[in-house]
Queue: 4 jobs
Job 1
Amino acid sequence: MLFRRSSKNKIEVTLEAEPRPAMPRQRELPAELLRKLEFRVLRRLDGFLFGDYTGFFYGPSLDLAEVREYQPGDEVRRIDWNVTARTGKIHIRQYREEKEVTVWLVVDLSASMRFGTRRVLKAEEALEFVGTAAAIVGRHGDKVGAVGFSEAGLRVVPPGTGRRQALRVLHQLYGLMSQPEPHGKKDGQEKAHSASLEYALEHVAKTLKHRALLFVISDFLNPQPEQEPPWAKQLRRLAYRHDVVAVRIFDPAEKELPNAGELRMRDPESGEEIWLDTSDPRVRRAHALLVQAREAMLERTLRAAQVDVLNLSTAQEIVEPLLKFTLRRRGRR
């Protein structure tokens, strides 16, 4: 959160850097959001995918059904070179797609996600993706569940199917985001110490018994950018058994410090506040180095976990990144 100090009277003024959802509309937001996504996002995806959503779900980790001889029209990248060398004839790997898949959405709704300087807050961008993914899962006939976490605790939505399940997921996550503190333990909700990505991933790793597709939706901010994030081990553990996609939500202002004079900056997670002179070149260089270190560590961590990555910016609609992501995963099948 950013505050500006007046040069005349030293009055602190909150910048309009964090658009806030209108509270009276909050109860209607899940259904309204899903309708907008169906109209604005899913129709465009329909035109591109022609009703075939398997490219969105399945990555390269499909079950190998058989190896057969090459036929005209087969894709060259599916050639099994070991079998081809052994038999002297070109053979192709034939995969069997899983007929049923359970999709889990692990959603970060912590304080750092309630920030945004462009089109929406990071949390709102995350919920747009959640609504889109849940609706696609419903069309595909598979089950979707969700694990949301914030300072209020951890909330689990058991897997279900159809449009009503998409609404249920959105409703539960909106409720968690609007609840500042837990008031006793309720159904599907853990206590407040669970408000971390590390804890959420550990919970998922312990509870999932069968292979699933996981979308981990977060800003993946690391308070110590030169050290491996505390959630890295759990992410690698999940990626070993499941098909995991890291959906990174970011705001452009997090990558470049605005040249706006003296600002009071507050860490939304810890509440710590400091004054910074953003017009000072030394401050701007130090911030740039910090961002560079954070980005490099995140890239190394996600690469080590061998997960697919989908980057979503608060400044951009989610359709184009989703289409590029789908093409990339299709090309690796």
Job 2
Amino acid sequence: MEHTNHYRDGRLCRRLAEQIASMCAEDIQIMEVCGTHTVSAFRHGIRTLLPRSLSLISGPGCPVCVTDQAELDAFIEIANMPDTILATFGDLMRVPATGSSLQKEKAKGKDIRMVYSTMDALDLARANPDRQVVFAGVGFETTAPTIAASILAAHAESLRNYSVYCAHKRVPPALDALMRLSGVEIHGFLLPGHVSVIIGKQAYTAFFEKHRIPCVITGFEPADMFYGIGRLAEMIASGTPGLENAYGRAVSAQGNLRARQVMDRVFETTDALWRGLGRIADSGLAIGEEFADFDAARRFCVNVRPVAAPAGCACGDVLTGRCLPPQCPLYATVCTPADPVGPCMVSSEGTCAAYWKYNR
């Protein structure tokens, strides 16, 4: 806690905020890509100390939120298969699919288990040899290594009743897609801390060299965020874009090599559907041929069919910085945490949930 408190020093944060204000003569928009950054900015009152000329806009950094509607429907389809247990992390339970959710299906009697790790899902497979156990694989490069590790473990044990439905996303290709969007102007990126621990600073080099936009990898404590925002403001004001790692206590240039090796062995890149961004080339992870027996999509012939988002839901625009949650016609009226219409109101990293909790 002593170490953490150092990054929560109020006087330090105020000094950093004053420095930021001195550099923001013109209006600028900075996108925090990570959902945890969005929540941290609200929780610590960071927005209240920033100058009015600097706006923080949220990006597609909530893994549950960017999961496409069709993928959510695929999880429901698997959960309804006979002799099947669907294992999932808890943040996926209440996310609305088309006409249902995993929580609603569980209430109907489907065997859907909330687990804390992929190894818990493996334990379910070992304990239920007469049933198929499918893990709902959602997330970015942060969680993908643990799911790849579970597939390696199942392969080593010849555990034939375990598989993964893989809906993983890769962050760097999404940044490139954001730069091609109309209707939103981004002057700099606060890059995600958790993802960067795995993929390292080097993973963003090609993106930066292509677009020459200021980018800073940042931690999640208040001083981390003020420092990262300050570095971006300085780059923007001086017209000297850079790619900087301001989270050196956790992120290295190459990332976590062991985790990357595990991912590279099990997964291969593929095109993926993102809520709000559509299909992005090479932005997803698919289970490679060597481990095809553990691919639930192939094992159960699950076909992902394009599905429209819920009528009136602006989650796609919120995730790409094109609108703020209060600008959605459903926000705080039809869509609330008790009865969500879109995933951004469900996830603990969702922008709508953060606005509801901290900004009403």
Job 3
Amino acid sequence: MPAAVPGIPAVRGSLDAVLTMRHAGTRRRLRLQYELAGPEDAPVALLAGGISAHRHGVANALDPSPGWAQGLLEAGRALDPARWRLLAFDYVGADGGLDAPIDTADQADAVALLLDALGIAQLAAFVGYSYGALVGLQLAVRHPQRLRRLLAVSGAHRPHPYAAAWRALQRKVVALGQLQCADEQGLSLARQLAMLSYRTPEEFAARFEARPALCNGRVRVAAEDYLDAAGAKFVARMPATAWLRLSESIDLHWVDPAQVRLPVSVIAVDGDRLVPLADAVALQEGLGCHGRLRVLRSEYGHDAFLKDTARMDALLASELAAPLPARP
């Protein structure tokens, strides 16, 4: 495994912005939090992850703790921070202070405001995973001049009805917890349900094959400790309001692929239960000559971006090295 590079230069900052939001009214005052890591003269790539991702993507001189995408941002990787300047930001609504519908289009507009403030005319690449892929697609439609290429990993132009139903049930679990004054328990259970959708039956079969145990007269299955730990970790860092509104945001997402006029690498995971391969194929077909589809087979399903890092990195390296066609 490549070693981390905690000594890479970095800056953190915030931007007070006014955003016209698609469903939440005009002139919303927001504070955008960001982190830039890497040499000042390096090409800039924006990295955007799932709804729980944040501005700290990689260990750096300012913050040596591992970032949320640490495995893909280490020395020798396709997005080596010694060769790229990596930009990440906290999503609109991530602090839980905005209790209103949030659209992926709002996130894309926030990115454009952030790029203006930082003096970045154009991103060399936008690498979006899960929710980040949705934001990247919106940016490609609404602000195409701000990025040269998009890598959309495990994200599509619309939510799949099965995945939307799964998220709706998770939100009902949170709401039930709130009604019972058990907010943390509700959010923890919602996260545990989500973990089942992020991973695959094959992974659970390999990791949790042990027979159930009897604990105080109750049956406890092998995966419960893992799920409990995932729920507790999530509750400690994600406000319930933020999770609810960003979960809704996934289901509000809708983009017409035909409106995209720049190179998009659609990277799908065979076995992803939230973004099925068929949806990635439909996205690539809608993109026409602007779309290129790559498929990774992984037991980690939707979480392959963060868990199957070596194979995912190889795909990213191939796509980032592909020549760009001349833009009209």
Job 4
Amino acid sequence: MKRSLFAATAVCSLAAISPIAHAADAPYVDDRTDAAAVVRSLYSAINRHEFSRAWSYFGETKPAKDFDTFAKGYDGTEAVEVKTGAVSEDGAAGSVFYSVPVAIRAKAKDGSEKVFAGCYTVRQVNAQIQEPPFDPIHIDKGELKPATAAFDDAVPASCGNGPPPPKKDAMLDQAKKAFAAAYGEQCDKTMPGGDPRGEPDAYSLHYKDAGAAASDPDRETRLFHFFCSMAAYNESSVYYIADDVAGVRQLQFAAPTLDIRYENNNSEGKVQAINIIGFQTDDQAVNSTYDDATKTITSFTKWRGVGDASSTGTYLFRNGTFSLVQYDVDASYDGEVNPQTILDYNSAP
């Protein structure tokens, strides 16, 4: 079958990156489960100054005339970062060849940085026809050249005859970057249950502007729901909305400030009055859900674990954003779930 292979110029390209010093805190990645993982493993080994391991990811065609030359080629680089793109594949003569688009950002010890981009060819020989010693999936050839684009945009769209990658979701990418910048260290790295924090829930909300004619096209707003953290009985989330006019922005959740009066000033006693004395905004919603049928986000905050005291805000999507329309409070610590509505913009005054 037809396939695209790249000239064996990996050695020259890699040497041009300049060498990489050992990074003690760089993650150890040794993964041959797929072609992109092999490339990421190569740069993990280089980042950690584990050049024997890096050498092992290449097959019979090595990236230098000998190992010492390969290792010496990395005497001066501080660190290297790698991104991979959409992988394509083609089979021939008992092997599968994968084309992996790659961009790397190399930082030298003097602080300068260079970006390189290109393609690796990774080969997987049919394991069923092999005899010892086993030949694992490995890098066959590669070529990287100086890139004119910034690192985030330098990964080639495709390699060889491979199909272009799926169209990028720019709004989702912007929301993820905004969340990572603001909450990457503040929020939990794992989901409840221990799984790594995953992709946000994403929704598309279609509507017409106020005053729009029936023939006017619908507008679209995107909603992104990110898990943030889990405490004893409350789970917090961060939301972003995005459209083609205002771009990506974080939702803020309005909530009333309350003055709660108890009989004999005993919070375990009877509630005498709940008064709204102002408003505030919260950047996170608690125990929240989004209902696409009603276009509402509900935030339910337990005041203690049994849930007999709580506050609930309901936020309705209209005119391109969410606004508070109802707020319910159960201020009695009586073992009963009996909230009362203290704010209602759903009903006419």
